[in-house]
Design a protein that fits this description.
The protein is α/β, with parallel strands linked by helices and about 270 residues long. The protein contains seven helices and twelve strands. It folds into two domains: about 140 residues, NAD(P)-binding Rossmann-like Domain (Rossmann fold, 3-Layer(aba) Sandwich); about 110 residues, Dihydrodipicolinate Reductase, domain 2, CATH 3.30.360. The strands form two sheets. Strands 3-2-1-4-5-6-12 form a seven-stranded parallel sheet, sandwiched between helices. Strands 8-9-7-10-11 form a five-stranded mixed sheet, covered by helices on one side.
Length: about 270
């Protein structure tokens, strides 16, 4: 880093979670960033840290005024957190799930009004972004596909944000190729379920199967079936360290953009 450049101050929300702890370690070890504070659910549950610890988002924002708010909270907190930090003029980087596309559209308008940038990323792993891109390309050539996503048993949401984002990109590619309207997700949830529950939850035109087991981190495969052939595109995150290059990139690039960007891939290609 050029020492004439100001360090980017970052507040990490959800710092006690697995992703939050990994992000705190990654950001605090980079000279590009200054970790200004962490937000936890309860101060009594917070481990010892050299950074100011808060359990109230508004208080953190008022007292610390960070450049960037990195959110790894949960579906119960993320929307209010991002609404609040944009109102304070703080740039959000959203790693939590539980928001809708309508939320993203609203955040985009709010960011533009405040002349700041924001990033909502269903997945920070570079390999996962490439997997989604390859799946979208393959969707032009195969009518039938299914997604199987595997995560640790502590993950609360199903399907995962990555699986839903993959299905969105596949549908958009088919729409562009066929010039026909495609499905639209309803409030970020699956609009209907197939008649046989064992066939997974239908998200648009693509069945998604969610596996939750101890020992897993984050894995996904997209399986395409054609005449006499099967194509499988798979990505495996073997540790949460795989997400950190993308987290660091997002916290840096969010300082250079205006409006809310949905998907880290827009910063890569």
């Amino acid at each position: 880093m050029n020492h004439s450049q100001k360090q980017i101050s970052v507040a990490v929300a959800g710092a006690n979670g697995k992703m939050g702890r990994e992000a705190v370690a990654a950001l605090s070890s980079s000279p590009q960033f200054k970790l200004s504070a962490v937000l936890v659910r309860s101060r009594g549950q917070a481990s010892e840290t050299p950074y100011p610890v808060y359990d109230d988002a508004s208080q953190l924002l008022m007292e610390q005024r960070p450049d960037v708010w990195l959110d790894f909270t949960d579906a119960d907190s993320v929307v209010d957190n991002i609404d609040r930090c944009i109102a304070f003029g703080v740039r959000p980087v959203v790693g939590a799930t539980g928001y809708t596309l309508e939320d993203v559209e609203r955040w985009n308008k709010q960011c533009l009004a405040n002349e700041i940038g924001g990033i909502a990323a269903p997945n920070f792993a570079i390999g996962a972004l490439l997997m989604m891109r390859f799946a979208a390309e393959a969707a032009r050539f195969y009518e039938k596909a299914e997604i199987v996503e595997y995560h640790h048993d502590g993950k609360k949401d199903a399907p995962s944000g990555t699986a839903k984002r993959t299905a969105e990109q596949m549908a958009k590619q088919r729409q562009d190729a066929a010039s026909e309207p495609s499905w639209q997700p309803s409030q970020g949830q699956a609009p209907e379920q197939p008649s046989t529950p064992a066939r997974g939850l239908l998200y648009g035109e693509v069945p998604i199967h969610s596996v939750r087991l101890p020992g897993l981190v984050a894995h996904q495969e997209v399986i395409f079936g054609g005449t006499g052939e099967v194509l499988t595109i798979r990505h495996d995150s073997l540790s949460r360290a795989s997400f950190m290059p993308g987290v660091v990139l997002a916290c840096s690039k969010v300082m250079e953009i205006q409006g809310m960007v949905y998907g880290l891939e827009h910063l890569l290609w």
